[in-house]
Amino acid sequence: MNIAKSAYLPYSNGMGIKGIIFDKDGTLFDYGKVWGPVVRDAIYSGLQSINIPDDKKKECAYAFMRVLGVDADGNTYPDGIIFRHDRLIAAFFRVLAVTLHYHINPVKVGMLFRIFLSKDEKGIAKRISTMEFPGVADVFQEADRRGYRMGIVTNDSTVSTKLFLDRMGISQYIVFLRTKDSHVKAKPNPEALREFCQENGLESSEVAIIGDTLVDMEFAHQGKAGYRIAVLTGSGDIERLTKNADAVYPTLHDVLKDPVLFPEN
């Protein structure tokens, strides 16, 4: 399945793409399959300390999962907090609605979300130690062979990000890494893109952005990136991503078919 929208994009400097910035969660791997069970476990753990009837706990847990954007079955929801962290005010009211519906102490709900957002590194390491990420290394190997400078910009922690990159076998290809610990403004602010360009001697028009959310596409737009690619293994928001990306693919591995980044493949 290839649903790329265009076979060629004109570049203002006529020099083409020389660097690629990748998002991590939902881009390098299927977000729901990896994080769905983690979210489930964190929420159920938090609900143990909240006085909710047993027959309502599963219903309540799924309500919170839906607000977050991923459930225990690996389904993702494009309007979830995870994928639309640019809409935190709206997310607050959605959380509040669930809290009021189930008569939960808001302070305990705050604790519940902190448990999830902390993403315990030991738990992550254990979960991904047996996971496979087919096709990811192929993309980075081919991009490296063609001379692209590659970076990762993610809202995850540095420790967690490095665990994933090592497991995928792609750490050696990454020349630039920005995480929530890097003291740069979060996407869609283009600060990280500007730093990538400065460190690698590139113009923003020579950089492609690959991500799975509208935030990633806005990051590219604000930073005046030369090319925007969306994959559907994260938010899965095909309608809005198609409107805001130059090309859309089902998975990262399908990007190897892209005629701009990988011509003649």
Classified in CATH, the superfamily of the largest domain is HAD superfamily/HAD-like
CATH architecture of the largest domain: 3-Layer(aba) Sandwich
Q: Order of strands across the biggest sheet?
A: 3-2-1-4-5-6
Helix content: 40-55%
How many domains comprise the coordinates? 2
Q: What percentage of the residues does DSSP assign to strands (E)?
A: 5-15%
The count of DSSP E runs of length 2 or more, i.e. the number of strands, is 6
Mean pLDDT: 84
Task: Describe the main β-sheet briefly.
Answer: 6 strands, parallel
Contiguous uncertain segments of 5+ residues: 1-15
Q: Helix count, per DSSP?
A: 10
Architecture overview:
- With 265 residues, the protein is of the alpha/beta class.
- β2, α7 and β3 form a beta-alpha-beta unit.
- Residues 1-15 have low confidence and may be disordered.
- Helices cover 43% and strands 10% of the residues.
- α1 (31-47) packs across α2 (54-68), α2 (54-68) runs antiparallel to α3 (88-101) and α5 (121-128) packs parallel to α7 (158-168).
- Strands 3-2-1-4-5-6 form a six-stranded parallel β-sheet, sandwiched between helices.
- The chain has helices spanning 31-47, 54-68, 88-101, 106-118, 121-128, 136-145, 158-168, 191-200, 214-222, 238-244, and strands spanning 19-22, 149-153, 174-178, 207-211, 227-231, 247-249.
- The longest helix has 17 residues, at 31-47.
- The protein has ten helices and six strands.
- It folds into two domains: 19-29 and 133-257, Rossmann fold, CATH 3.40.50.1000; 32-128, no CATH class.
